[in-house]
């Protein structure tokens, strides 16, 4: 038991600049009207905005300098993604930077480097983590035969509609490997899009059976398993950052309504039954932000150690609670208006429902923490 | 003022060595865990001597000016000294109402005469201070206090009752909020603030027995008590403003504390260490996933608070609601502390029903007592509910 081994929290100049610039960008490019316009499009985001993000270099932030990135690490992504969450800006950014992390951490051989180059230029990529709906089940069952033909279906593959590069954990001769599949190798009728509760997000079930790849498209080495587990925990951190941003926006929505709506002759914000839970939203949000920036202080390109793992687990466990609570109360505190599709509270409660599951719910992360603290 | 790393490190080593040599032995009676628990003369004498010793060694009031008994150096030295005191688990500095609230107030807004008269005695523990704000009928509604102060020549005549006066029976001075004018339009405008001597006739401090069965605060009766007119701080009618500033120090939202430990900190590590040997359903307690989950949630709360203390100082990470972390600190910390101690008792099995005094009680009933004591901080200094109102109104801008 050694829970407080690291308590660092600081912000580098680069992080501060990214925080400010991305906040401004998201505010301008992703108003709530913009967000609503994308809800029923196929991709779920505006390609022009994506291209601007690419031009700003956001996709190369966490790519090391020797691979022609900016070398700021995952640390640099956290402020950006927090602001995207605040503006509910749905793009394949999280999926793509995670795919890049996996390529970097597991291999960065020639084929990977070529894909990383494409990613920096704006080609969306994604990792097919799941084969069922249990984030706690890390056993891979999909296989690739000795003739390099894939057998199996992956589920809940984020940003399938946008992605051009798919990274699949597979079993080859009993060993965990990663297969790099490109979009043109997939037939349209192997893709079964999900109807997601968060309409700003996209995912699908994909049947990869029968796809034959080249040996250069396979990563098999001693780093695969650790990298995959590291990228899952980074995924948890990035979703936590996005949740913290969405929680902040949702809190603003609540505060605004409590300061304008009157009943019984008083602003409803004067009633403590609403006022005090709103303070709880704020203190939970404060905890979320402290955890995500703590993680963003200590995480690095190195293989993830215990301290960082603890920080990411805490960030996701807390931010899930923060957003599910804030969004749930936001609906209630808007009365009849809160029950409508027109009220923005629906965007946040849907984001809450979707994001609580991504990379494991709060209970999953707390139980992982118990394992770490109590030597289980 | 910048201080080299080396200089600070040397200071740390020096304090550490001194504390190692001078840390008092277990006195054979229970030592207070916080300044609100000083209930016997024995405890008082012991703590008074200890505070004097720390001050004489030069480890208290380090950042207060030299001419008033302080050390006149950068606050970072006091922070280091406090950290070492905490690390080495030495007894508390009990004169907190002086060191932490009245002292900083006098230092920041007092007259030269007031600083000369009061500051040093606070540090040496010669002068014990208490706070006369709450009254039987007005606690949270502090702006409504009714104690009367009527000017008569070069004295004020005080009548009325204060209550929950921590160390009221030991104090030499009281920071006192009283009404000098009954006819103001706003209730706040009739209040004045006094640095009142307690050793005048007409003041009676009657100890009140606390929830723990011990003593620590008093009901304090004023019957035609006469105090010098120059014991008023500022002008008549400024009492509310000064009282509010005092509460800023008290709630930790404003710096200036002379230093020393106000309370013994209990951490999740301490609790978990004790639970390692506990059993439930015939198995080690820490095998129970529900218990583990409760503990993990509290570890997270504890860590969020200490990370929040760091984030407070990072402008770009507090820009949404800049006052949020400082103004909600008391609420978050005291509520966490209460729930943590509550769980600690809950997890003891049948032994959780034992009180201080039973030989079989875990750690002499430490957690039982700590749980009860934790309410002193969720009620005293402004209740959690009132703190939530303050955060809602002053941080989020919600209506009264
Ligand atoms: C251990 C201890 C030491 C103390 N030491 C001192 C001291 O040295 N000097 C001193 O002056 N005082 C001291 N106090 C008193 C303390 O400041 C008051 O007890 C506190 O301000 C609450 O006032 P009250 O007791 O009158 O409770 P009340 O104000 O009557 O409150 C009763 C309940 O109503 C709630 N409530 C009241 N108003 C509101 C509101 N507007 N919105 C929502 N809920 C509300 C409260 O939260 C509480 O739960 C001490 C108290 C304790 C417990």
Ordered list of secondary-structure elements with their pairings:
The complex is a heterodimer of chains A (376) and B (400).
Chain A: H1 13-29, H2 32-37, H3 47-55, H4 73-86, H5 93-106, H6 110-120, E1 125-127, E2 143-144, E3 150-151, E4 153-158, E5 165-172, E6 175-182, E7 191-193, E8 203-207, E9 218-219, H7 224-258, E10 262-263, E11 266-267, H8 272-298, H9 306-333, H10 335-338, H11 345-357, H12 362-373
Parallel strand pairs in A: 1-5
Antiparallel strand pairs in A: 2-3, 4-8, 5-6, 6-9, 7-8, 10-11
Chain B: H1 5-22, H2 41-57, H3 75-88, H4 96-109, H5 112-124, E1 129-132, E2 148-152, E3 155-166, E4 173-179, E5 191-197, E6 203-209, E7 215-228, E8 232-233, H6 239-250, H7 268-275, E9 279-280, E10 283-284, H8 289-311, H9 324-346, H10 366-379, H11 384-394
Parallel strand pairs in B: 1-4
Antiparallel strand pairs in B: 2-3, 3-7, 4-5, 5-8, 6-7, 9-10
Helix pairs in contact in B: 1-3, 4-5, 4-6, 8-9, 9-10, 9-11
The structure holds flavin-adenine dinucleotide.
Number of domains of chain B: 3
The rough form of chain A would be described as globular
CATH architecture of the largest domain in chain A: Up-down Bundle
Q: How many structural units, i.e. domains of chain A?
A: 3
Biggest sheet of chain A, strands in spatial order? 1-5-6-9
Task: Find the count of extended strands of chain B (DSSP E, 2+ residues).
Answer: 10
> How would you describe the shape of chain B?
globular
Give the SSE string of chain A: HHHHHHEEEEEEEEEHEEHHHHH
Text of the CATH class of the largest domain in chain A: Mainly Alpha
CATH superfamily of the largest domain in chain A: Butyryl-CoA Dehydrogenase, subunit A, domain 3
Strand residue percentage of chain A: 5-15%
Strand content of chain B: 15-25%
Any idea of the CATH class of the largest domain in chain B?
Mainly Alpha
